[in-house]
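Figure caption, in words: inputs first, then the predicted bound structure.
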Amino acid sequence: MHHFHYAGSDLHCESVDLDAVAKLYGTPTYVYSAATMEDNFRRLQRGLAGLDAQLCYAMKANSNIALLRHFSNLGAGFDLVSGGEVRRVLAAGANVHTSVFAGVGKSEAEIKLALENGIFSFHVESEPELSRINHVAGKLGVKAPIAIRVNPDVDAPTHAKITTGKSDNKFGIPLKYAAAAYEAAAKYPNLAIKGVQMHIGSQLTSVGPFVEAVEKVGPFAAELKARHGITYFSIGGGMGIVYKDALASGQRAWWDAQPADKRPLTPETYGAALVPRLQPLGLKILLEHGRFMVGNSGVLVSRVEHLKRAAGKNFLIVDAAMNDLVRPAMYDSYHEIVPVQRDSSRRALTVDVVGPICESADCFAKDRPMQELGEGELIAFMSAGAYGYTMASRYNTRGMAAEVLVRGSAFEQINARETFEQMVAGERIPAFLK
Ligand SMILES: *Cc1c(COP(=O)(O)O)cnc(C)c1O
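Bound structure (pyridoxal-5'-phosphate present):
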């Protein structure tokens, strides 16, 4: 459920008309709902009642510092993956002490920065990394808290570019070698073994793979507790969201109308399946959801440049492009696209929704039936809160989009549209070309 809905003919985020946001801040602009994020956070927290659970929001999904402050105020820590993300947590005035550092290639400088700021734990992906963290901790005269990421070899049905829990990808250490990796970790003088971690993939829409992974790794976590005194088990993130019926899924009635075997995963179902399997371990449970926390909390608002009618095809050319929202080009992802002003008297038209970039991949939707729209009118890409802005680029010298946060009837820009001067600020013509 989320807080995007039509009030009359106008699409609103909470009590704010998206047309008003576009008038003030232009397009393309990401608009986020603070209430939706809060609902997602609280539902997941309630679903985990009975566990000593800590949510570590996977900030690579959306790392704007305003969102980090919002989640921090709610009690979240963070799952972070770079020195830049450590600095974002600090810039948000949020807590590094409840945050974990993941990723397969942390540099010495990044490890140092995280240790100096009191990171809760490092999630280690290989034996060479143990050695590097031990080395940096030794130089600082501290013990580095660590957990090893184990790969449970669970086939989580999702897009090939976002599956991580199979043994043939680069993530983690296969379960059968993990005990030896912990023995190796125990020999390093500057490491403190704190936990065990797994993460099987992203945009998972059924609970089965999560259950399978917990059942595979749970007994190993119990062994580690006995042998190395671990105190936590991080079960990763990956809970999926609704992309196809994104707008309708804002309403409870939509969920109630879904047949039981077709209903997308909810935090309640997730919690009900996992809590009884995790509770007996007597460990603190960390969760690293990113997409679930923010995905349905954001839309990308864009303006129509032209409706181009070509032989047998209609192209709706809009001012957002693959540089702003790369998911359709990169993962063939579906985003529901809706008019900001609904007009049921207009006829429906089948269109390809495309951006202005010189690439055929700059296409958001093919043969999509939509209300007929013309130049200057607004559309919204639903479910754009996760892996939208954070994966954006400046391709075609298009500055980064603006970002706006809504809460109730209030809204503020939380990131200004990037200017040309900012884009070229670091560029120089060398002396030998002058
Ligand atoms: C990306 C990632 C997450 C978050 O994944 P979502 O699908 O956004 O929930 C969590 N943990 C790790 C280790 C990740 O790499």
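The pocket of pyridoxal-5'-phosphate is lined by residues 58, 60-61, 79, 102, 199, 202, 236-238, 288-292 (CB under 6 Å).
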